[in-house]
Specification:
The chain has nine helices and ten strands. It has about 290 residues and is an alpha+beta fold. Strands 1-6-7-5 form a four-stranded antiparallel β-sheet, with no helix packed on it. The protein has a four-stranded antiparallel β-sheet with strand order 2-3-4-8, with helices on one face. A two-stranded antiparallel sheet has the order 9-10. A hairpin with a 2-residue loop joins strand 2 and strand 3. The protein is elongated. One of its GO terms (biological process) is base-excision repair.
C-alpha cells in the first residue's frame, strides 16, 4: 500500500511532469472508483494543472480551480505514459486500469488497481476538505506542528489502545500505514502491542524521533525518483516489514510475523519484545 513517503514522491514527480499542462479528458473505466458527482469528472477537461500536492495518503491534482483527489488504497498506483491511445479507454473487468488522465500532448497518467478487492477512490471537489477522508485526517508527522507534546497528547487520548493500531489510524496521525508503522516500532525498539498511554518520558521522545526519522528518511530516499522506481525503493529499505524469516539487520534475530484477518505485522523479538514472541491469534485458532 502506498504510504506517506511514496505519495509524497508521487506528488513531487507529477508536479514536475504536469506543471502548466492541460487535461484533455479523464477516462473512467472503473465507475465505482468515482465517489463524487458534482462537479462532474468532465469539468476537468480543458483545465490547466496548477499543482500537485499530498494530504496524508491522498494525492491532490489541482486543475482549473478544482481538485482531483486520489486515494490509491491497498493496490493502487499511478503510471506515467509518454503516449496514450487516441480512443477513450473503455471498461474492462480484466484490466487493472481504473482511470486515465489524457494530457494536451497525448501523454497521460494511468491510474491502476491490482487484485479483485477494489477500493481505490477518486474525488472531484472544489476544496480538498470536501473529501471526508481528508477532512478527518490527523496531523501530518512531518509538519512543524507535529511536536513531541502533540504526540504525547495523542497517546494519552488513545489510552490503552495498542500503539501499532494508533500509528496506523489516519484520523490520529496522517500517512502512516502498515509498513511504516512496523518500521517505526522497530526503530523505537517497542512492541506493537504496547499501550499508547504507557509511552511517556524518554520512551515518548524515542517514539517521536523514530516517527520523524523513519518517515523523513524514506521521503528523502524517494525524492527525485520516478513513479516506476518507488515500489522497489520502499521494499529494499525495510528492516522488518515484509521480511518474515529473514535476519534482523540490527541484531541478527529472525524477523517474526503476527497474522490478522486481512493484514499482518512483522517485528524482531530481540529488539522489540525482550526476546518474547508475540501471540499469533490466527495461528492459535488454526492449531486448536
Amino acid at each position: 500500500m502506498p504510504e506517506l513517503p511514496e505519495v509524497e514522491a508521487l506528488a513531487q514527480d507529477l508536479a514536475g511532469r504536469l506543471d502548466g499542462r492541460a487535461i484533455v479528458r479523464v477516462d473512467l473505466t472503473a465507475f465505482m472508483a468515482l465517489k463524487t458527482f458534482d462537479p462532474p469528472l468532465a469539468a476537468l477537461s480543458g483545465a490547466f494543472v496548477d499543482g500537485v500536492s499530498r494530504h496524508g495518503k491522498f494525492l491532490d491534482i489541482e486543475a482549473g480551480g478544482l481538485h482531483l483527489c486520489i486515494h490509491l488504497a491497498r493496490a493502487g498506483w499511478i503510471r506515467w505514459k509518454d503516449s496514450v491511445p487516441a480512443l477513450p479507454a473503455r471498461p474492462n473487468s480484466k484490466s487493472p486500469l481504473a482511470a486515465r488522465i489524457v494530457l494536451d500532448d497525448d501523454s497521460g497518467l494511468d491510474i491502476t488497481e491490482a487484485g479483485t478487492k477494489k477500493s481505490l477512490a477518486l474525488y472531484v471537489v472544489r476544496d480538498p476538505q470536501d473529501v471526508p477522508g481528508i477532512a478527518s485526517l490527523g496531523p501530518d508527522p512531518l509538519a512543524d506542528a507535529f511536536t513531541v507534546d502533540v504526540l504525547g497528547e495523542i497517546l494519552q487520548r488513545e489510552g490503552r489502545k495498542q500503539i501499532k493500531g494508533v500509528l496506523r489510524h489516519q484520523g490520529t496521525i496522517a500517512g502512516i500505514g502498515n509498513a511504516y508503522s512496523d518500521e517505526i516500532l522497530h526503530a523505537a525498539r517497542m512492541s506493537p502491542y504496547k499501550p499508547a498511554s504507557s509511552i511517556e518520558g524518554d520512551d515518548l521522545v524515542t517514539l517521536y524521533d523514530a516517527i520523524r526519522g523513519t518517515v523523513g528518511e524514506a521521503v528523502e530516499r524517494s525524492r527525485g525518483l520516478a513513479a516506476s522506481e518507488l515500489k522497489g525503493e520502499k521494499k529494499s529499505n525495510m528492516a522488518v516489514h515484509g521480511r518474515t524469516g529473514q535476519a534482523c539487520p540490527v541484531c541478527g534475530d529472525t524477523v517474526r510475523e503476527v497474522s490478522f484477518a486481512d493484514s499482518s505485522l512483522q517485528y524482531c523479538a530481540t529488539c522489540q519484545t525482550g526476546g518474547k514472541p508475540l501471540a499469533d491469534r490466527r495461528m492459535s485458532k488454526l492449531l486448536k
